[in-house]
């Protein structure tokens, strides 16, 4: 998941590596974490889908893996103090020196991390992988291969997970994924039926180019956002975002759909959130809330044909309680074309 870019990830479950690595499960073109920390590593996976071990996967990508740390003690420390900057060293073993180096690590707040994970070239999705197209082909609507047969969707890539594209395709969409800095004029020239705003890493506020693009597109075609995409939509609608002390992580976050009253168990991975009170008409903007802390999990503005959620309805991994949102997006596009 590109949302993990630049972060060290620690697992609370004590034994990691049991499943091995399955190429079908990867969500981007490379490993995104800065380091992976476990209590105990299992070097002999038991899974018929496995094509290699976790250690080999990390080594091939030159990603540091650390074993035999008390990950539950580390988790308790993070739970008490919040997410923090860190450093791992095999050469400098002086604690004071390492603390000084950790303090010099740039904060996620105020940093544009999307530039490191967005695609460099536009692409369609073909045979379960990106099918790149020349950038100069984005001059008109003739770029679409299934125009009229499927919904033409432009996905702004802020760090998109592959399974999001699969879910959009399964909902009857043809998805053209474009770089994060693609302008509103270029997107409008493609005459899409809808715009998708992807997930991604870090702070949304430095992404002024994306907010400006979204603001120019709002109201012209339906817009659907996930995770960072929701935060950017919130900013484009005049709201504000903030860094939360404890990021929402894992696949068991309870979220209430305010329209239906149903509770969805969701997969989440974000450290920033939209401030509900900053939206001008927050009563109509509120669509989902987190039942653990009453934080904002979804916004919707029917007048702008725009909606977004803070969690991951595509799961991968996680529950599929919110998979209906992709069908909802398709229905909004169908209604907009009627």
Mind explaining what this structure looks like?
By secondary structure, the chain is an alpha/beta fold. It has two domains: 2-104, Carbamoyl-phosphate synthase small subunit, N-terminal domain (Glucose Oxidase, domain 1, 3-Layer(bba) Sandwich), CATH 3.50.30.20; 114-337, 3-Layer(aba) Sandwich (Rossmann fold). Helices cover 24% and strands 26% of the residues. The protein has helices at residues 54-60, 71-81, 95-104, 162-170, 184-189, 208-217, 228-236, 282-285, 324-337, and strands at residues 8-10, 15-16, 35-37, 40-41, 64-66, 123-126, 129-132, 151-157, 173-179, 194-197, 223-226, 240-257, 263-275, 286-290, 296-301, 306-309. The strands form four sheets. The chain has a nine-stranded mixed beta sheet, with helices on both faces. The chain has a three-stranded parallel beta sheet with strand order 1-3-5, with helices on both faces. A hairpin with a 4-residue loop joins strand 15 and strand 16. Helix 6 (208-217) crosses helix 7. The relative contact order is 0.12. The model has no long low-confidence stretch (mean pLDDT 94).
């Amino acid at each position: 998941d590109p949302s993990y870019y630049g972060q060290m990830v620690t697992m609370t479950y004590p034994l990691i590596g049991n499943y091995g690595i399955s190429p079908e499960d990867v969500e981007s073109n490379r490993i995104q974490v800065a380091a992976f920390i476990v209590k105990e590593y299992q070097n002999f996976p038991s899974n018929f889908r496995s094509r290699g071990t976790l250690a080999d996967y990390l080594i091939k990508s030159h990603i540091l893996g650390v074993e035999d740390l008390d990950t539950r003690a580390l988790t308790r420390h993070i739970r008490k103090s919040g997410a923090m900057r860190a450093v791992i060293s095999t050469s400098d073993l002086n604690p004071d020196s390492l603390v000084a180096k950790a303090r010099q690590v740039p904060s996620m707040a105020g940093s544009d991390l999307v530039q490191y994970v967005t695609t460099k070239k536009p692409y369609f999705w073909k045979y379960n992988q990106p099918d790149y197209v020349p950038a100069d082909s984005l001059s008109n609507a003739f770029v679409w291969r299934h125009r009229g047969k499927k919904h033409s969707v432009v996905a702004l890539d802020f760090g998109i997970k592959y399974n999001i594209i699969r879910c959009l395709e399964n909902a009857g969409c043809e998805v053209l994924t474009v770089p994060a800095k693609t302008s509103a004029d270029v997107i409008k020239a493609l005459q899409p039926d809808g715009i998708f705003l992807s997930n991604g890493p870090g702070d949304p506020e430095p992404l002024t180019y994306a907010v400006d693009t979204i603001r120019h597109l709002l109201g012209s075609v339906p817009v659907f956002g996930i995770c960072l995409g929701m935060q950017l939509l919130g900013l484009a609608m005049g709201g504000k975002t903030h860094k939360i002390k404890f990021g929402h992580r894992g696949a068991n976050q309870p979220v209430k759909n305010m329209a239906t009253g149903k509770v969805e168990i969701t997969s989440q991975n974000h450290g920033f959130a939209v401030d509900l009170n900053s939206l001008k008409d927050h009563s109509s903007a509120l669509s989902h809330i987190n039942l653990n802390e009453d934080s904002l999990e979804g916004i919707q503005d029917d007048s702008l044909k725009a909606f977004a959620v803070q969690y991951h309805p595509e799961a991968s991994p996680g529950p599929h309680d919110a998979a209906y949102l992709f069908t909802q997006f398709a229905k909004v596009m169908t209604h907009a074309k009627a």
